[in-house]
C-alpha cells in the first residue's frame, strides 16, 4: 500500500539541502528574498493550486473550474509541464511537484528564490502592503484570500441569497477588474483626487458680507444659478476617477425590477465588491511586473544552475532541456523578453564601466577608441582571477582571507575540511568575489559587446568625465574596474521599475536589433496581419501599448451625475487605438448591474468610408479613417449611440503618442 | 471540495445555467499549432472587458533569424504564452471553425461503449485505498460527536433495572412489628425485591421508634402499601436516575472498506522506420488516440508508456510519439524487449492491468516475428496484446507480421490483430480491439 505522504516526505528530505543552499547562494549573490516555505505536492494538488492562481483557497466561482479544467488537460496531454508556483507573500509559499526530477526541482527552487527577492524589494508590490521589505511583514496574502473565500462562500450558501445572483454579481465586478488606480497605494487609492466642487458663489458672497442691495444689482439669481452649475460641471469633469470600482462601491446602486427604482446594494453586495476590489489591487503588482519579475527569476536561476553549477553535471542536460522549453514557447514570451532585457542592462552597465576606465588611459580618446584599443587584450585582462574563477580544494591556498572578495570565515572552515568546496565553491567568496567570477562581459556570448559600443556613447562618457584620474596603461585601468556595477544597478532597478517604465527606459535600439523584434499591424487592404516595422522606436511603442494599463484601454469615471439624471459617464482615454466596441457594450450591460441607472461610455471610433476601402483593396494602400467621438448609452434595455459633445471629446482625446506603426507606403 | 464544485458550475455555465454567458463561450484547442500536434478541445468562457480592437492594436513579434520583411503576412495574433499557470494564456483558436464539444474521457468511454456495444470491465488490482464506509463499527473511545447515546442509555437502564428497588416499600416492611433486619431481608428477597442486607441494616435506625409496629404482619403491609415499579420510579424521578457508566460508552466508527484501485498501463508501440510515411502515421494516431482516451475513461488511473522503434527501440514522450520518423530498418522485437523490461520494472502484473498496443506496416526483419516477437508476446502477461497494421492500399508483399501474429495466436483471447487501410477502418479496428479481452 502506497502512502502518498511518505513519498512527499522522502522528497522533502531529498530537497532540504538544495533549498537551504539555494537561499544561501541567493544571498551571497546579493539578493534579499522573503523567506520561502516549500511544500511538496502531487500532480493533482499542483493542478489545483495552479487553477487557484497559486493559492490553496479562493472564493467559489466557475472561473477556477475553467482554469482547473484547462490545467488538467494540459497536464494529462503533456502540454506545458507545470513547474513552479510561488506567491507574493511574506513568508512566500512555494509548491514543488513531487514527481519532478532533482534537476527540475533545483531549477524551480533557484527560480523561486529570485522571485521572493523581487516580491520583497519591488515597490509596486509594496503598494498593496504600503511598504517594502521589512515593512511588509504584515502581509499574509494566503490568509487574506482565504478570509475572502470564507466570506463569499457564506453568501453563496446563504439560503436567503440566490446563489446564481451572487455568481452573476461577481461576474459583473470581474468585467471591471482592471479599472483600478494601480499606480497608487491601495490604502489611498480610494481617496478622490478631485477637490470638492467650489462653494456656491452665493455662499462666498455671504461670507464677504456684501449687502443685499449690491448683490441684487450685481448678481441676479439667474446668473448665479448658471455660474454655480458651470462651476460644478467643471469640477466634475476635471479629474476623472481611475478607480472605477471604488466609485461604484460608493455610489453604485442596483435596479429593482419591482419598484422600477435604483436601490442601495445589499450588504453582501457591498462586501463582495470590496473584496474583489481588494484582490484586484493585490494582484495588480504581479500583473504590472510580469516581464520584469519572470526575467529576473530566469536570470538568477540560469546563473545559479548553469554558471554556479547548482545543477550537477548529470542533471545539466535535463536543465538545459527545461530552459529550452520555457524560453522556447512561441509568441511574446515574458520570460525571454525579461531575461534578455536584464542581461542587456547588465551588459550595458558593465560596458560603460569598462569604457569609462579605458577612456582614462593616456592616449585613448573617444575618437580613437576603436582603433587603439586591443579588445582581445582587454578581454584577457578582464577575465576573473583564476583563483576566483575556479575553486577546488587544491586551489584554496591561493585565496587570501584579507581579500574583500573572499569570505574569510568560510575559507577557514573549508581549509578545516568542514565545508565541501567541491560542491559549493561559491561559499568561500563574498558578493564582490562572485560578481567578478560571473562578470557578464567575460562570458563567451558577450565577447563582442564591448567592441560594439557606439561612438556617441563614448563621446557622452568623455564629456561628463569630471575627475581626470588617469591610467598609464590599459592594464592599470582594467585592474580598477568595479566588477559589481552591473549587479548593483540591476538591484536598484528591480526596486523601482514596472514593466512599462523598464521597457521605456531600457528597450534600446541595440536591444531591438539584436533580438530581431518587429511590429505587425492589420491591413485593411489585404484583410490580414502583416509585418509593419522593425524600427526600434516603433517596437518600443507597440510593446508599451501591450503593457500599459495591463494592456487594456484606460477607462475612468467622468461623471456620476451625467445629464443631472444620476447617469454614470465613463470615458475611454483615447490614445489612438480604438476600443473593441462590441465587447465594451457587453461590459456596459454589466456596469448597469452595478450602477442601477443608465450608464454611458465615451470613446473615439475610427470610421472607414466604404468607397475608400474598396479603392484601398484594389490599390494595396491603407485607407485613412476619420475619427469621431461617440457616446454609447445603455439604459438596462437598449443601446443608443450619440455623437459626442466636442468639449467632452476633447477631454478624452489623444494628445501625444501615436501607436500606429504602419509605414506610409506599406504594401504598395 | 471547492474546486470540484467550481468545475461543475463551470461545466453548467452557458448550458444548463447562466445562459446569459452563452455568448462568451468559445471552443478552442489546447496543444500546439503545428500540424503534428494533437488538438485537445477545450471550452473557454471569456467574460467581456474593456479591450482594444485587436485589428487596430497590432502587436510585436520576434524573428527567428533576422526580422521578416515589411509587408510579409504573419499569423493571427497569438496571446503571450506563459510557462507557469497564471491567469492568462488562451488557446490558439484560429482553427475554430470546428465546434468541439468538451469531452471527458469518461464520457468518451461511455459513448464509445454505446456506439460499439462494448462491455469492458476494468479490473481492480492492488488495494490502494481504504475508504470509510458507514458508521457501523463500535469502539470504546472516540470523539464525543460519535458517541452512541442510545446504547449508553439502554445499558444504564438495564443496570437500573437490575439493581433498583422500591425503597419506600422496604421501609414499610421494616415497620412490621417485631421484624428484625434479617427477617425483613429474607422476606424481601422472597418477594423478589432486590435490596441488600447492608442497606436494610443501614436504614434500620432511620425509622423512628414510634413508627415501628405500624403493621402487624408483612401480609398486612402488602395489602395496604402500594408498590411502585421501576419504570414508574424512573418516570417520576427523571432520567438522571439512570446511571451512565464510563464502561458503557460506545463510539461509532466508520467501517473501513477496502477499495481496489483499478489502474491500467497502456504501452503504445510504434514503428517509426523509414517506410512509415505520413499517411500511415496518421492512421496510427487515429487509432491509438481514441483507445488511450477510452482506457483513461474506464480506469481510475491510467498511465502511458510510449515506445518508438525501428531496428532498435527507445522510450519517448507522448508529444514526440506520433511525430518521430527515423530512417532505419525494422526489428519489431526490439520494442517488445524494451516493453517487457519497462513493464517488469515499473508495472508489476500483480498491481497493474496492462494493454500492449503495437502498430506499424507489418514489415519486419526476416524471422523476427516468428522467432522473437511471438515468444515475447506470449511471455508478457497482459490483459490484451494488439497489433494494428496500417497499410493504406492494402497489404504489401513483404509485410507479413500481422498475418503471422494472427496465425500464431489463432483462437487465443489475449491477442488481437486489426487491419487499417484508411480512416474508415479505424472504428472497426477499435471495436475489434476493445471487444477482445483475456478473461483472467
Write structural notes for this entry:
The complex is a heterodimer of chains A (668) and B (440). With 668 residues, chain A is of the alpha+beta class. Chain A has 30 helices and twelve strands. In chain A, a hairpin with a 5-residue loop joins strand 2 (84-86) and strand 3. Chain A is globular. With 440 residues, chain B is α/β, with parallel strands linked by helices. Helix content of chain B is 35%, strand content 17%. Chain B contains 15 helices and 13 strands. In chain B, helix 3 (105-116) crosses helix 10, helix 6 (181-190) crosses helix 7 and helix 12 runs parallel beside helix 13 (368-379). The two termini of chain B are 37 Å apart. The chains are: A alpha+beta (668), B alpha/beta (440). At the A-B interface, helix 2, helix 3, helix 7, helix 16 and strand 6 of A face helix 1, strand 2, helix 2 and strand 3 of B.
Summarize this entry quickly.
With 668 residues, chain A is of the alpha+beta class. The longest helix of chain A has 26 residues, at 334-359.
Number of strands of chain A: 12
Name the strands of the widest sheet of chain A in spatial order: 8-9-10-11-12
The rounded Rg of chain A comes to: 30 Å
The chain-level mean pLDDT of chain B equals 76
Global shape of chain A: globular
Distance between the termini of chain B: 37 Å
Q: What percent of the residues of chain A sit in helical stretches (DSSP H or I)?
A: 40-55%
Question: How is the topology of this model organized?
Answer:
The complex is a heterodimer of chains A (668) and B (440).
Chain A: H1 4-28, E1 36-41, H2 43-51, H3 62-76, E2 84-86, E3 92-97, H4 102-121, H5 123-129, H6 141-157, H7 163-175, H8 186-189, H9 201-208, H10 212-218, H11 221-238, H12 244-251, E4 254-256, E5 261-263, H13 267-288, H14 290-307, H15 316-328, H16 334-359, H17 369-372, H18 375-382, H19 386-389, H20 408-415, H21 431-437, H22 455-463, H23 474-479, H24 485-496, H25 499-506, H26 509-514, E6 517-523, E7 528-533, H27 536-547, E8 555-562, E9 567-572, H28 581-595, E10 599-607, H29 610-619, E11 626-634, E12 639-643, H30 646-652
Parallel strand pairs in A: 1-3, 9-10
Antiparallel strand pairs in A: 2-3, 4-5, 6-7, 8-9, 10-11, 11-12
Helix pairs in contact in A: 1-4, 2-3, 4-14, 5-13, 6-7, 6-13, 7-13, 7-28, 14-16, 16-24, 25-27
Chain B: H1 2-12, E1 25-30, E2 40-45, H2 54-57, E3 59-62, H3 105-116, E4 127-132, E5 137-139, H4 149-163, H5 167-174, H6 181-190, H7 197-204, H8 218-224, H9 230-237, E6 251-253, E7 256-260, E8 263-271, H10 278-298, E9 301-309, E10 313-316, H11 318-321, H12 332-346, E11 353-360, H13 368-379, E12 384-390, H14 401-408, E13 415-420, H15 425-435
Parallel strand pairs in B: 8-9, 8-11, 11-12, 12-13
Antiparallel strand pairs in B: 1-2, 4-7, 5-6, 9-10
Helix pairs in contact in B: 3-10, 6-7, 10-15, 12-13, 13-14
Amino acid at each position: 500500500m502506497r502512502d502518498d505522504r511518505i513519498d512527499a516526505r522522502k522528497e522533502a528530505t531529498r530537497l532540504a539541502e538544495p533549498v537551504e543552499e539555494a537561499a544561501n547562494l541567493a544571498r551571497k549573490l546579493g539578493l534579499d528574498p522573503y523567506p520561502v516555505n516549500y511544500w511538496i505536492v502531487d500532480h493533482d494538488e499542483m493542478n489545483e493550486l495552479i487553477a487557484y492562481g497559486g493559492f490553496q483557497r479562493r472564493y467559489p466561482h466557475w472561473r477556477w473550474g475553467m482554469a482547473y479544467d484547462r490545467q488538467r488537460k494540459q497536464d494529462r496531454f503533456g502540454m506545458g509541464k507545470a513547474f513552479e508556483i510561488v506567491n507574493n507573500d511574506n513568508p512566500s509559499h512555494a509548491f514543488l511537484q513531487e514527481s519532478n526530477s532533482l534537476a527540475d526541482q533545483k531549477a524551480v527552487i533557484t527560480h523561486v528564490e529570485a522571485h521572493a527577492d523581487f516580491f520583497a524589494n519591488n515597490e509596486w508590490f509594496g503598494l498593496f502592503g504600503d511598504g517594502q521589505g521589512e515593512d511588509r511583514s504584515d502581509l499574509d496574502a494566503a490568509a487574506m484570500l482565504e478570509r475572502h473565500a470564507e466570506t463569499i462562500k457564506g453568501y453563496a450558501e446563504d439560503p436567503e441569497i440566490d446563489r446564481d445572483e451572487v455568481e452573476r454579481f461577481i461576474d459583473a465586478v470581474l468585467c471591471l477588474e482592471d479599472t483600478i488606480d494601480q499606480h497608487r497605494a491601495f490604502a489611498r487609492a480610494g481617496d478622490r483626487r478631485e477637490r470638492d466642487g467650489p462653494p456656491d458663489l452665493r455662499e462666498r458672497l455671504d461670507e464677504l458680507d456684501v449687502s443685499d442691495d449690491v448683490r441684487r444689482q450685481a448678481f441676479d439669481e439667474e446668473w448665479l444659478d448658471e455660474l454655480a452649475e458651470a462651476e460644478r460641471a467643471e469640477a466634475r469633469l476635471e479629474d476623472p476617477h481611475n478607480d472605477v470600482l471604488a466609485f461604484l462601491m460608493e455610489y453604485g446602486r442596483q435596479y429593482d425590477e419591482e419598484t422600477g427604482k435604483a436601490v442601495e446594494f445589499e450588504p453582501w453586495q457591498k462586501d463582495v465588491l470590496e473584496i474583489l476590489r481588494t484582490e484586484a489591487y493585490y494582484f495588480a503588482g504581479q500583473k504590472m511586473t510580469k516581464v520584469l519579475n519572470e526575467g529576473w527569476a530566469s536570470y538568477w536561476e540560469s546563473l545559479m544552475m548553469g554558471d554556479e553549477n547548482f545543477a550537477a553535471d548529470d542533471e545539466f542536460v535535463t536543465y538545459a532541456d527545461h530552459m529550452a522549453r520555457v524560453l522556447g514557447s512561441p509568441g511574446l514570451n515574458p520570460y525571454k523578453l525579461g531575461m534578455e532585457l536584464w542581461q542587456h542592462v547588465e551588459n550595458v552597465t558593465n560596458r560603460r564601466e569598462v569604457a569609462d576606465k579605458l577612456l582614462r588611459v593616456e592616449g585613448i580618446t573617444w575618437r580613437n577608441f576603436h582603433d587603439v584599443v586591443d579588445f582581445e587584450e582587454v578581454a584577457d585582462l578582464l577575465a576573473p582571477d583564476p583563483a576566483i574563477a575556479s575553486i577546488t580544494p587544491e586551489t584554496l591556498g591561493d585565496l587570501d582571507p584579507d581579500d574583500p572578495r573572499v569570505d574569510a570565515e568560510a575559507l577557514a572552515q573549508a581549509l578545516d575540511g568542514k565545508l565541501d568546496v567541491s560542491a559549493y565553491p561559491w561559499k568561500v567568496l563574498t558578493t564582490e568575489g562572485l560578481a567578478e567570477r560571473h562578470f557578464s562581459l567575460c562570458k563567451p556570448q558577450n565577447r563582442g559587446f564591448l567592441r560594439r559600443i557606439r561612438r556617441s556613447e563614448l563621446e557622452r562618457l568623455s564629456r561628463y568625465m569630471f575627475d581626470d584620474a588617469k591610467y598609464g596603461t590599459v592594464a592599470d585601468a582594467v585592474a580598477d574596474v568595479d566588477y559589481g556595477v552591473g549587479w548593483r544597478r540591476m538591484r536598484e532597478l528591480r526596486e523601482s521599475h514596472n514593466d512599462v517604465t523598464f521597457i521605456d527606459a531600457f528597450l534600446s535600439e541595440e536591444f531591438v536589433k539584436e533580438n530581431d523584434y518587429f511590429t505587425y499591424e492589420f491591413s485593411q487592404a489585404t484583410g490580414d496581419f502583416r509585418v509593419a516595422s522593425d524600427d526600434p522606436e516603433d517596437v518600443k511603442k507597440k510593446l508599451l501599448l501591450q503593457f500599459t494599463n495591463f494592456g487594456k484601454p484606460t477607462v475612468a469615471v467622468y461623471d456620476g451625475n451625467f445629464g443631472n439624471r444620476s447617469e454614470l459617464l465613463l470615458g475611454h482615454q483615447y490614445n489612438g487605438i480604438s476600443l473593441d466596441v462590441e465587447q465594451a457594450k457587453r461590459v456596459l450591460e454589466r456596469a448597469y448591474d452595478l450602477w442601477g441607472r443608465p450608464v454611458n461610455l465615451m470613446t473615439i471610433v475610427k470610421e472607414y468610408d466604404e468607397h475608400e476601402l474598396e479603392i484601398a483593396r484594389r490599390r494595396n494602400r491603407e485607407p485613412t479613417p476619420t475619427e469621431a467621438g461617440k457616446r454609447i448609452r445603455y439604459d438596462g434595455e437598449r443601446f443608443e449611440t450619440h455623437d459626442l459633445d466636442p468639449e467632452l471629446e476633447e477631454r478624452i482625446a489623444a494628445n501625444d503618442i501615436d501607436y500606429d506603426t504602419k509605414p506610409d507606403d506599406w504594401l504598395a | 471540495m471547492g474546486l470540484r464544485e467550481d468545475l461543475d458550475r463551470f461545466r453548467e455555465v452557458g448550458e444548463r445555467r447562466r445562459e446569459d454567458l452563452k455568448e462568451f463561450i468559445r471552443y478552442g484547442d489546447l496543444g500546439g499549432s503545428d500540424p503534428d500536434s494533437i488538438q485537445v478541445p477545450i471550452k473557454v468562457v471569456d467574460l467581456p472587458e474593456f479591450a482594444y480592437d485587436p485589428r487596430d492594436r497590432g502587436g510585436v513579434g520576434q524573428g527567428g533569424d533576422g526580422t521578416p520583411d515589411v509587408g510579409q503576412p504573419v499569423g493571427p495574433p497569438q496571446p503571450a504564452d506563459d510557462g507557469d499557470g497564471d491567469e492568462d494564456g488562451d488557446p490558439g483558436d484560429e482553427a475554430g471553425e470546428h465546434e468541439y464539444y468538451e469531452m471527458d474521457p469518461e464520457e468518451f468511454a461511455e459513448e464509445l461503449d454505446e456506439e460499439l456495444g462494448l462491455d469492458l470491465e476494468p479490473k481492480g488490482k492492488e488495494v490502494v485505498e481504504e475508504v470509510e464506509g458507514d458508521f457501523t463499527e463500535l469502539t470504546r473511545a472516540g470523539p464525543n460527536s460519535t458517541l452512541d447515546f442510545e446504547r449508553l442509555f439502554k445499558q444504564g437502564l438495564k443496570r437500573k433495572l437490575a439493581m433498583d428497588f422500591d425503597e419506600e416499600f422496604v421501609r414499610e416492611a421494616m415497620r412490621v412489628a417485631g421484624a428484625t433486619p434479617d427477617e425483613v431481608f429474607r422476606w424481601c428477597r422472597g418477594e423478589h425485591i432486590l435490596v441488600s442486607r447492608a442497606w436494610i441494616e443501614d436504614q434500620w435506625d432511620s425509622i423512628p421508634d414510634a413508627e415501628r409496629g405500624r403493621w402487624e404482619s408483612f401480609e398486612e403491609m402488602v395489602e395496604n402499601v402500594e408498590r411502585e415499579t421501576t419504570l414508574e420510579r424512573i418516570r417520576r424521578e427523571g432520567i438522571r436516575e439512570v446511571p451512565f457508566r464510563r464502561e458503557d460508552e460506545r463510539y461509532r466508527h466508520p467501517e473501513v472498506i477496502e477499495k481496489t484501485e483499478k489502474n491500467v498501463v497502456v504501452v503504445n508501440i510504434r514503428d517509426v522506420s523509414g517506410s512509415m510515411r505520413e499517411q500511415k502515421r496518421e492512421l496510427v494516431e487515429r487509432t491509438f488516440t481514441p483507445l488511450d482516451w477510452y482506457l483513461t475513461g474506464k480506469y481510475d488511473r491510467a498511465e502511458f508508456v510510449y515506445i518508438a522503434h525501428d531496428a532498435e527501440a527507445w522510450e519517448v514522450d507522448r508529444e514526440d510519439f506520433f511525430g518521430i520518423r527515423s530512417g532505419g530498418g525494422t526489428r519489431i522485437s526490439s520494442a517488445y524487449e524494451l516493453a517487457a523490461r519497462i513493464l517488469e520494472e515499473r508495472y508489476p502484473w500483480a498491481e497493474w492491468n496492462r494493454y500492449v498496443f503495437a502498430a506499424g506496416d507489418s514489415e519486419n526483419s526476416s524471422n523476427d516475428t516468428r522467432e522473437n516477437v511471438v515468444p515475447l508476446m506470449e511471455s508478457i502477461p497482459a490483459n490484451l496484446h494488439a497489433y494494428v497494421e496500417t497499410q493504406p492500399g492494402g497489404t504489401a508483399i513483404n509485410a507479413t507480421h500481422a498475418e503471422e501474429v494472427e496465425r500464431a495466436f489463432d483462437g487465443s483471447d489475449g491477442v488481437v490483430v486489426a487491419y487499417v487501410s484508411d480512416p474508415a477502418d479505424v472504428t472497426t479496428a477499435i471495436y475489434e480491439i476493445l471487444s477482445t479481452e483475456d478473461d483472467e
